[in-house]
């Protein structure tokens, strides 16, 4: 029997498919830039080159995804505008457009009902390497905390996000259950900190990592029952 007080979630690909979300958000961003600067060409190849250049200059941008994208946009705009101040301001406006679209997701079927269900019995939180926002997503009423790799300075599978959650909640590792789709970044990483783990196994990553999750589910709607079995 495990006595959990907190259930923490990974977000992308655990509660929704992230790839179509990013594709759509980039389309929205591209459209906004072209409407705002009709002569500006949003060249994906140039953006990748500027992104790689920024990463070479500052490796920490690898987990600071919002700043990495903003800086990439700023550099592209600076080349077009030849005015750094305007480029920086426009890049911040562009990032807001992107983030609004990035947080319009299609939750897996039953995910919102599952979250509302378990929120009645556990404190909920989110730990993510990405830049999804629980408040923009409409999850703020159920989640009492959320931390990103950008905030703590290191992405999973580093333990920093889990340590921050434990410090924030004041619970012991065995009192926190972590739910995620990635067998290495989620399951292995949380296991090594001593958290309970549930692997939401997806078709993209069907094989386990180096350690076993306490429970494995193939559909987020199976989560409440998996938690009950672990706590019984």
Brief summary of the model shown:
The protein has helices at about 20-35, 45-55, 65-80, 85-100, 110-120, 150, 160-170, 185-195, 225-230, and strands at about 5-10, 125-130, 145-150, 175-180, 195-200, 215. It has about 230 residues and is an alpha/beta fold.
Task: Provide a descriptive summary of the structure in words.
This protein has 232 residues and is of the alpha/beta class. It folds into two domains: 6-16 and 106-231, HAD superfamily/HAD-like (Rossmann fold), CATH 3.40.50.1000; 19-102, Four Helix Bundle (Hemerythrin (Met), subunit A), CATH 1.20.120. 48% of the residues lie in helices and 12% in strands. It has nine helices and six strands; from the N terminus they run βαααααββααβαββα. A six-stranded parallel sheet has the order 3-2-1-4-5-6, sandwiched between helices. Helix 8 links the parallel strand 4 and strand 5. The N and C termini lie close together (5 Å). The mean pLDDT is 95.
CATH architecture of the largest domain: 3-Layer(aba) Sandwich
| Main sheet attributes: strand count, strand direction, barrel closure | 6 strands, parallel
The CATH topology of the largest domain turns out to be Rossmann fold
Number of helices: 9
Determine the fraction of residues in helical runs and give it as a percent range.
Answer: 40-55%
Structural class: alpha/beta
Overall tally of domains? 2
The chain-level mean pLDDT equals: 95
Q: What is the C-level CATH assignment of the largest domain?
A: Alpha Beta
Using the alpha-carbon principal axes, give the shape.
Answer: elongated
Tell me the Rg in angstroms. 19 Å
Which range does the strand content fall in? 5-15%
């Amino acid at each position: 029997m495990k006595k959990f007080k907190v259930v923490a979630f990974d977000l992308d690909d655990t509660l929704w498919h992230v790839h179509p979300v990013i594709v759509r958000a980039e389309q929205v961003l591209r459209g906004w830039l072209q409407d705002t600067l009709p002569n500006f060409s949003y060249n994906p190849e140039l953006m990748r080159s500027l992104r790689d250049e920024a990463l070479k200059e500052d490796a920490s941008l690898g987990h600071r995804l919002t700043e990495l994208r903003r800086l990439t946009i700023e550099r592209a705009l600076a080349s077009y505008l030849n005015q750094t101040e305007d480029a920086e301001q426009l890049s911040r406006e562009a990032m807001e457009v992107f983030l609004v679209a990035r947080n319009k997701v299609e939750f897996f079927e039953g995910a919102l009902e599952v979250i509302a269900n378990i929120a009645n019995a556990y404190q909920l939180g989110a730990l993510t390497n990405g830049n999804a926002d629980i408040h923009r997503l409409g999850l703020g009423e159920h989640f009492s905390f959320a931390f990103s790799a950008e905030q703590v300075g290191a992405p999973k599978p580093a333990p920093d996000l889990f340590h921050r959650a434990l410090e924030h909640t004041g619970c012991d590792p065995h009192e926190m259950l972590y739910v995620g789709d990635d067998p290495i970044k989620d399951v292995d990483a949380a296991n090594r900190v001593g958290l309970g783990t549930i692997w939401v196994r997806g078709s993209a990553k069907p094989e386990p990592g180096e350690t076993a999750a306490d429970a494995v589910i193939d559909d987020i709607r199976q989560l409440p029952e998996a938690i009950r079995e672990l706590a019984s």
